[in-house]
Amino acid sequence: MIRDKLEKEEASLEAEAMRPRAGFLWAAGVVSILAVLAYFFEDMMVEPDGNGALAYAVLLGLLIMLAMFLVLCYRMPRIGNRLLGYDVAIMPTREKEKASFQYTGGFKVDTGLDEKRMSSKRKQARHSRKKLAETTRQMQAEKTTTDKKSDA
């Protein structure tokens, strides 16, 4: 019951995050109107000798490109929602593969990676104990052979 409710909320959150925002259309309209006004008032911005023509062309180009980008943000909700910060709801959650533990219900729970690490530590410790025991046996054997030689 709770799981179904959470899944419904998650699905509605994803649907909301993928919905195109009308604000982008409004902003594109405003920027387009500004571009049209800049075009109509060209004679006020550009002096008769041509001074300021480059700045006017850049301004007009930027306004048109901005309007086109805002329409793109409306048409492709993934881009627009990423700008607005809704991409967190869209992105799939990554599992913590490198974490040695995870918290479930407030309690620390060992993961498979933690268990694997402990297993390899046990293997290393077992190997070093065997090596130490073998070296100790060799030393004792050498000691007994030298003791027998010195007694004889």
What does this structure look like?
With 152 residues, the protein is mostly helical. The chain folds into 2 domains: 2-90; 101-151. 76% of the residues lie in helices and 5% in strands. The protein has 7 helices and 2 strands. A two-stranded antiparallel ribbon has the order 1-2. α4 (53-75) packs across α5 (77-84). The longest helix is centred in the last third of the chain and has 40 residues, at 112-151. The N and C termini lie far apart (87 Å).
- The residue-averaged pLDDT reads 82
Number of strands: 2
Largest sheet: 2 strands, antiparallel
* Class of secondary structure makeup: mainly alpha
What is the approximate shape? elongated
What percent of the residues sit in helical stretches (DSSP H or I)? Answer: over 70%
Q: Please state how the strands of the largest beta sheet are arranged side by side.
A: 1-2
Indicate how many domains the architecture comprises: 2
Poorly predicted parts: none
User: H/E element string?
Assistant: HHHHHHEEH
- Helix count, per DSSP? 7
Distance between the termini: 87 Å
Content of β-strand: 5-15%
Global Rg: 36 Å
